[in-house]
Amino acid sequence: MRTLYLCYFGIREPLVQSQVLPYLREIKRDGIEINLLTFEPDLGRRWTKQELDEMRLKLAADGISWFYLPYHKQPSLPATLYDIFAGARMASRLIRTHGIEVLHARSHIAAAMAFFAKRLSGALLIFDIRGFMPEEYTDAGIWPAGGYLYRLTKAAERRLLGAADGFVVLTERAREILFHGDSPTDPLGRPVEVIPCCVDLKRFSAADAVSREEVRRELNVTERRVFVYVGALGGWYLTDEMADFLALAHERDRRAFSLVLTQSPPEMMTRRMQARGLAETDYLVRRVDPRLIPRYLKAADVTLSFIKPCYSKLSSSPTKIAEYLASGLPVICNAGIGDLDQVIEEDGVGVLIRELNEEAYLRALSAIEVLEHDAELAERCRASAQARFDLETVGGARYRRLYHHLNGSATLGEGSN
Fold first, then answer.
1. Do 27 and 399 touch, CB atoms closer than 8 A?
2. What Å distances lie between residue 370 and 349, 350, 363, 373, 375, CA to CA?
């Protein structure tokens, strides 16, 4: 089979490097020919011809043929509509010139491109639903609830769901909501795969080359109890609530140290820590290359995830949780996010916060202290990551199974190569 993966991000984006490309390498293991279309911000300013050629050759060495178009940002709706039709036109051309049989669309905007290209060509369409996009924009306060952009996107979503030949969702809860059950197919018999955000566990095994003590010395936290948060700040991420929790952890335990690794502006967190009376020696907020996350997690004792518990987040699978567990670390997170309640409680790998207040935070801190005394905790966390979030045996296997289903071949069981 030949597939065209449509992604409305630039190739250098951390999300593409950590999620999209690893999945594509897994899909091609069964001989599926991979073509990738991305949308590059500031194409003329950020890229030289030499850099474009080098990236194309680098991806070709991985068996991925790369194509790109410029990304347009403003004005928002007209720019997005322009990119949708430009993407559909490019996809249609690639179908003709490269014999593309499957259009694999990452999220709603890419699916809109694939929708038009499918109508012109008859290619199969995989709708890789990365979240409840209309609800995400309203829950984040970007769109007004029930506004014209929300209604327009919901109408488009219904058309995309009707046109697709197969689906990917991130959580079991999303499958239940969209397809009314836990069947491997939707009511029309189209395949549905639940594929959470997975990680390459070998990256975390490789971090064992450096010792925990060495990383803690580098960060000057050898005598500290380190709480770590990895990821964005603001929006859906409850930065104020996390700062409140950390301030309470510091008040409760003078050895506490807060390490925040983010691609967001560091001052979004530092000013909150200062406002809560924490000394500069008690925390570090740092921008970090995503490739170095496994190394920094070596210094951690406890990890955190605070995400707004709203309807759209029922479809969410935070990559940070897979990274934490792969590092053998327990998680403190708030309830109501995707399938995490089940993961945390069934696997015994952390503590759920069911209310965002001081009393609940104190209970969580007490519970995590008890859990940390469990000698099997680290191994249990790694086993949970292996069973639920492994790039090869979970993510890759399920993607390949979906392609085999579409191709009319025998399905692959999880763990098959």
1. yes
2. 12, 10, 11, 6, 11
Q: Which residues, 6+ apart, have CB-to-CB distance to 152 below 8 Å?
A: none
- Strands (DSSP E) along 312-392, which ranges? 331-334, 350-353
Residue 417 pLDDT level (bands cut at 50, 70, 90): very low
The string of pLDDT tens digits covering residues 105-116 is: 999 999 999 999
Question: What is the chain's length?
Answer: 417
Residue 250: both structure tokens together: 């510091």
Residue 150: what residue type?
Y
Pick from 8-17, 214-223, 345-354, 404-413: least confident:
404-413
Q: How many helices, marked H, and strands, marked E, lie in the chain?
A: 19, 13
> Rounded to the nearest 5 degrees, what angle is found at the Cα of 31, between the Cα atoms of 94 and 392?
110
Question: Cβ(330)–Cβ(351) under 8 Å?
Answer: yes
* Phi, psi angle pair for 212, to nearest 5°: -60, -40
What's the sign of the alpha-carbon dihedral 9, 198, 352, 244?
A: negative
Query: 7: helix, coil or strand?
Result: strand
Spatial separation of the C-alpha atoms in residues 7 and 318, rounded to whole Å? 19
- Over range 228-243, report the average pLDDT: 94
Q: Determine the Cα–Cα distance for residues 352 and 337; give it in Å rounded to an integer.
A: 11
Work out the number of other CB atoms within 10 angstroms of the CB of residue 21: 19
φ, ψ for residue 230 (rounded to 5)? -120, 130
pTM over 0.90: yes
Sequence-ordered list of residues with C-beta below 8 angstroms from that of 367, at least 6 positions apart, any chain: 351
Structure confidence at residue 410 as a pLDDT band (50, 70, 90): very low
Written as one letter, the residue type at 313 is: K
Contact call for residues 285 and 269 (beta carbons, < 8 A): yes
pLDDT at 416: 36
Summarised one tens digit per residue, pLDDT across range 358-387 is 999 999 999 999 999 999 999 999 999 999
DSSP structure string for 161-220:
HHH-SEEEES-HHHHHHHHSSS-SB-TTS-BEEE----B-HHHHHHGGGS-HHHHHHHHT
Q: Rounded CA gap, 414 and 59, in Å?
A: 26
> H or E element: which one contains 70?
strand 64-70
414 three-state secondary structure: coil
pLDDT at position 350 is 98
Output the six-digit token pair for 282.
């008690």
Phi, psi of 168 (to 5 degrees): -125, 135
What is the C-alpha to C-alpha distance for residues 230 and 232, in angstroms, rounded to an integer?
7
Rg (CA), the chain: 22
